[in-house]
Amino acid sequence: MHRTARPILLAPFALYMGLTGTALAKEVELPRTMAWSAYGTNSSGYTQAVAIGAMLQKNYGTALRILPGENDVSRMTPLKGGRVDICACGIAAYFGAEGVLMFATPDWGPQPLRVITTSIASFSMSPAVAGDLGVKTPADLKGRKISYIRGDDALNKGTEAYLAFGGLTWDDVERVDFPGYGRSFDGIIAGQSDAAFTSTVTPVAQQLASSPRGITWPTLAPDDQEGWARMQKVAPYFQPHVMTSGAGGVSQDNPVDSASYPYPIIVSNADFENDTAYSLIKALQDGHADYKDAAPGAAGYAMDKQNMTWVIPFHDAVVEYYKEKGVWTDAMQAHQDQLVKRQNLLIDTWKRFTDSNPPQDEAAFSQAWMTTRADALRQAGLDPVFE
């Protein structure tokens, strides 16, 4: 199983500045216009993209055109079709790279994605639990009413991962289906549900915190190795995270041991032009002070917040940049090589599968693909993760 790790701890200042005999850094040379897809206009991901665009325009004369998308497929489609250079995506980028869930369909399959950068901020991704229940850990959710959002794989997989940390599955709770994310929180306030997955700083979490039920966030013990192994078996993209921003009074003075994953995940296709990819990561780091306070969560793009051994491979030019900075290690390269090997295997397997006259029915197609995918990964000594 390929597991996540905590964000890297950088080497001393001299090493960070690249004073290690590596090649001199290149200059930033960006096109006059770039196109990104991002979350909807009322999201923090969109606001961050706007802040980055202002920095690129000011420092490099590059205009950023942002295409908002209301769901995972609508954000990924322009990248797949070449209409945008970059997607400021959510965790669906990982699902796309793996060819699973909504991407296990004839029109999709595993995508050749590469990370440019990610943001890990002070908030977490967690089930918000009604505060009148006394829930302290995921194990305390046993027998409770848990929201399931129809058609939202990312939220449901997040809930499943927290249940797994507590040694639970959906069979151990009362699943309550809702037609949408907002309705799931209305359901908690109305007593129809007890918990729903969310970012800890969203307006719906604040709304629950202000309701008569109140809000609490389950704690994940950092040293519970078995719990983390179960969680990452379900969702390898989660990593330990100390939450210092969250509804219900979470702060620097009142932190919560929790879990999170990057948001947004800034990805390109593997064939994104090397010089542009290099210039973009350099611009994002060199100009971080110009946008880090301009949007909620933008501080999370700092280099010391990056997880260099995550679940999607970096773009080759980004690896080159980190090598120049002196922060890229042999262990990181080995991890990168394994991720690229995994992705190439998935893409090759997909081609053979789609050339083999697979079932025409979409449900049967997806089931057959997932079986073929799992077999190919196992034969290569890799963890299928999604089955």
Short key terms for the protein model shown above:
387 residues, alpha/beta, D-Maltodextrin-Binding Protein, domain 2, 2 domains, 5-stranded mixed beta sheet, 3-stranded antiparallel beta sheet, 13 helices, 16% strand
CATH architecture of the largest domain: 3-Layer(aba) Sandwich
If helices are DSSP runs of H or I spanning 4 or more residues, what is the number of helices? 13
Radius of gyration, in Å, reads 21 Å
Arithmetic mean of pLDDT: 92
- According to CATH, the homologous superfamily of the largest domain is Periplasmic binding protein-like II
Overview of this structure, please?
- With 387 residues, the chain is α/β, with parallel strands linked by helices.
- It folds into 2 domains: 206 residues, D-Maltodextrin-Binding Protein, domain 2 (3-Layer(aba) Sandwich); 136 residues, Periplasmic binding protein-like II (D-Maltodextrin-Binding Protein, domain 2), CATH 3.40.190.
- Helices cover 38% and strands 16% of the residues.
- The strands form 4 sheets. A 5-stranded mixed sheet has the order 2-1-3-12-4, sandwiched between helices. Strands 8-5-9 form a 3-stranded antiparallel sheet, with helices on both faces. Strands 6-7 form a two-stranded parallel sheet.
- Strand 6, helix 5 and strand 7 form a beta-alpha-beta unit.
- The N terminus is likely disordered.
Quick structural gist:
This is TAXI family TRAP transporter solute-binding subunit. By secondary structure, the protein is of the alpha/beta class.
SSE inventory with pairings:
Elements (H helix, E strand, L loop, with lengths): L12 H4 L16 E6 L5 H17 L2 E6 L3 H9 L5 E4 L2 H7 L14 E6 L6 E6 L14 E5 L3 H13 L8 E5 L2 H9 L5 E5 L3 H8 L4 E2 L8 H10 L4 E5 L12 E5 L4 E5 L4 H13 L1 H4 L24 H10 L4 H25 L7 H18 L8
Helix pairs in contact: 5-8, 6-7, 9-11, 12-13
Organism: Stutzerimonas stutzeri (Pseudomonas stutzeri)
InterPro entries: TRAP_TAXI
Protein name: TAXI family TRAP transporter solute-binding subunit
